[in-house]
Amino acid sequence: MSNNYGSKFLSWIKSAAGLSIVVTIVVAVVASIASGPYLLVNTVVTGGMLALVATGLTLMLGVLNIPMFAHGEFFMIGSLAAFYVFTPISNYTNENPDSIIVVFGPLIAMAASTIIGAISGIIAEKLVFGPLRRRSTDDWVMNSFLLTVGLSVLLINLHQLVFGADFKGIVGYWSGMPISIYDVFISRDRVMAFMIAAVIVVLFWFFMTYTRTGMAIRAVSQDITGAQIVGIDIEKIVLLTISLACALSAVAGGSLLFMYPSYPTVGLEPLYMAWFVVILSGLGNVLGAVAGAFIVALLKVITVEYIGAGWDFVIPSALIMFILIFKPSGIFGSDVRGALDK
Fold first, then answer.
1. Per-residue model confidence as pLDDT tens digits over 209-226
2. Which of 1, 88, 283, 316 has its CA 20 to 30 A from that of 141?
3. Tens digits of per-residue pLDDT, 134-144?
4. What is the CATH number of the domain that holds 211?
5. In this structure, is residue 302 part of a structural domain?
6. For the chain, how big is the Rg over CA atoms in Å?
């Protein structure tokens, strides 16, 4: 039995996915030894939040075949919601520093960003994606691509028109001395951001794996006809999928408000990085997106550390292009199989 497990482990290591994960861990350890543990800390925090955005993006691709180029704008919506909810909370806690709201206020702001993100996704489905889906399935991917690009432009300009173009950010959610881990001082906001991302990813995995609704979502992504035969309500699953995807992006924006202040185009960087993850891990691969998020985060952090901030998109893009030449379906080898596949 042990030999069987050993052979399976070796075959996994030799696979593209296993080799990529092993190489990523080795590179992260070596880079941390050379430059300091803070590099690993930045990778973990960035990767955790990037996993949320990328998971929502790949969920849209895997279930609906929607290349969601407006996904970054839901990150922006989340950051904007968190700002307007947390600002009065912050004013109150400044006058009442002993209030319990000091601890739970940031969580209220993040919960608000999640709810508003989900509601925004529902509105987008009712006003944008639903009408397109009912009227046309021909050239679906191209039409939905153009639709999401238009939605992105609309939301960016709507933000600028209603809320202005100035930056709306905060110094931090939680005050207090930074936490020291191996002589690396980490702000409480970064620690909490990673913990929140980890909890959400685990809960989302449990939801998709063990709940009836999660299984229904996976069934629709694999075979819409079979899902309909067994009585799954496709319209409800589509609505839930879009709201979940937008909520994941929005909670990432709300959680990282201390790093990414809200302004009209704040979602562009998370969107680009999320697309790197989705393409690298394989289109429609939800679990692969989590591992891919940390790989892309490490590439970004190492690029900024050793080459410069201006190259943080160039090097990851070049490496991903190189990988895709030899592994077109991504390192986790997953193709798109969505509800409207021909």
1. 889 998 888 888 777 778
2. 316
3. 877 677 778 88
4. 1.10.3470
5. yes
6. 20
